[in-house]
Amino acid sequence: MHIAVVGLSHRTAPVEVREKLSIPEQTIGSSLKSLKEEEHVLEASILSTCNRLEIYAVVNKPEEGITTISEFLSRYSGLAKEDLLPHLFFFHHDEAVAHLMRVSAGLDSLVLGEGQILSQVKKMVRLGQENHSMGPILNRLLTQAVSTGKRVRSETSLGTGAVSISSAAVELAQLKLGQSLGKDQLVSLESERVAVVGAGRMSRLLLQHLQSKGCSEVLLLNRTKERAEKLASDFSELSIHCALLSDLDDCLSKCSLVFTSTATEEPIINASRINALERTGFLRLIDIGVPRNIDADVTGINHVESHDVDDLQEVVSRNQEARQKVAMQAEGLLKEEGRLFLEWWDSLEAVPTINRLRASLESIRAEELQKALSRMGPDFSARERKVVEALSKGIINKILHAPVTSLRAPQARAARQNALNVVETLFGVNNEKGSG
Ligand SMILES: NC(=O)c1ccc[n+]([C@@H]2O[C@H](COP(=O)([O-])OP(=O)(O)OC[C@H]3O[C@@H](n4cnc5c(N)ncnc54)[C@H](OP(=O)(O)O)[C@@H]3O)[C@@H](O)[C@H]2O)c1
User: Fold this and answer.
1) 103-162 pLDDT per residue, tens
2) Residue ranges per domain, the chain?
3) DSSP assignments along 399-413, one per residue
4) pTM for this one?
5) pLDDT 10s digits, 298-343
6) Residue 101 C-alpha to ligand 1 middle, in angstroms?
7) CB within 8 A of 245, min separation 6: which ones?
8) Residue 433's pLDDT is what?
9) Where does 78-183 have alpha helices with state H?
10) What pLDDT digit, counting tens, does each position of 175-225 carry?
11) Atom 25 (ligand 1): residue with closest C-alpha?
């Protein structure tokens, strides 16, 4: 058995490829089912976020397993294999484990150390468990990845400072406004007429950052007005006017800065929509949705500037140096967690031998006990029989304790293999002989 991960992320694929491989929560179940039906896939789980799609799997043959998963991704995205493969990464065994630990800790995120990824890894665990696509190995690995993510946040300062895609989006708006004023720095957004489209988790974070960056008024548009109103009620210091998505044209006509963060599958803003508006001022659009909420065809429209999630790299790089130093602190912790998992994995090698040894001793015990009891005849009371039976079980357990502990203990692969060979030979429990 092997652990493998196949996927793509903001590091390997642009947003136009990533959006084709965004698997919404409602179709994760059927995707996991198709993966599990594949001959080479024994366990599977899917991590789908705006910046990555990764499939973690336990496969019986690494090459065949990885090919199977890549073919699944090609079918799902509708991209030909030759177009998709250059964007995919593949990791196997210890590299796959190390990658997951880094992802969960936010070290592989566009915004280094952002916290949303941890809840997305937790969601991957929940969906894998609900859809029964994970077995003992992925369960253990992913649970450990979640606790590693938590450890990094509590034991290092990587998670301090509210960093997220949303905070980067607000910073990008500040930077672009600054640049348009001839300053290469972040400036206050107080003069902007700002709108946020969407009222989910990302919009909440957008509002928090807008508030902290000097915004006093925001127009909040959502498909469902009640949700926008509920979100607005949590911001007492920000004047939020809520409207329906059907007011989008009016919003685009009046506002100078519009953030979009809805989970729509199709763009809600495109060139023809903007061109049909009677607008006068400059319009800056910042889209953090994946799939994108704003069509790429808006690029080049006069007095309109549009940015997608990949453009956040510009502000992210400015802040990265200081955070990289903190990230280094986390690396040691991640190595330790990865090693613990691999030790557990290695100890699994001993399980078949331990099971055969246990079964062999148990059959001797049961046989000998039966002989002894039949010799004792009816003189032996039920209570005495129970005592003798418990005594025989106690002896077997005591005998097994030392070898089982030693076979399971962390050790070099070769040393464990030697120990397994010795036990198998001495007790006659080799697999080939079918003993026990
Ligand atoms: N979560 C993250 O860490 C993260 C990070 C970066 C980017 N993103 C991207 O940001 C976007 C929003 O994510 P989220 O986590 O905030 O989602 P969320 O909490 O699930 O909220 C979804 C929002 O999208 C709206 N929506 C859903 N389908 C829509 C449709 N067909 N047309 C118009 N509006 C629709 C919902 O409106 P209703 O209230 O009416 O349902 C709601 O406002 C997604 O594209 C996501 O990929 C997410």
Assistant:
1) 999 999 999 889 899 999 999 999 999 999 999 999 999 999 999 999 999 998 887 766
2) 2-159, 165-316, 348-427
3) HHHHHHHHHHS---H
4) 0.84
5) 999 999 999 999 999 998 887 777 778 878 889 999 999 999 999 9
6) 26
7) 197, 221, 222, 223, 268
8) 40
9) 81-84, 94-105, 116-130, 136-155, 165-180
10) 999 999 999 888 999 999 999 999 999 999 999 999 988 899 999 999 999
11) 262
Residues with CB under 6 A from ligand 1: 50, 116, 165, 198-203, 222-224, 227, 245, 261-264, 288-290
Question: 265 CA distance to ligand 1 centroid (A)?
Answer: 10
Interval between CA 99 and ligand 1 midpoint (Å): 27
CATH code for the structural domain at 2-159:
3.30.460.30
Indicate which atom in ligand 1 lies nearest the CA of residue 116: 3
Distance in angstroms (rounded) separating the CA atoms of residues 62 and 1: 8
Specify the amino acid at residue 414: A
**Closest to 424 measured CA to CA, from 345, 349, 344, 343:** 349
**How long a stretch of residues is the chain?**
436
Give me the architecture of the 165-316 domain, per CATH.
Answer: 3-Layer(aba) Sandwich (3.40)
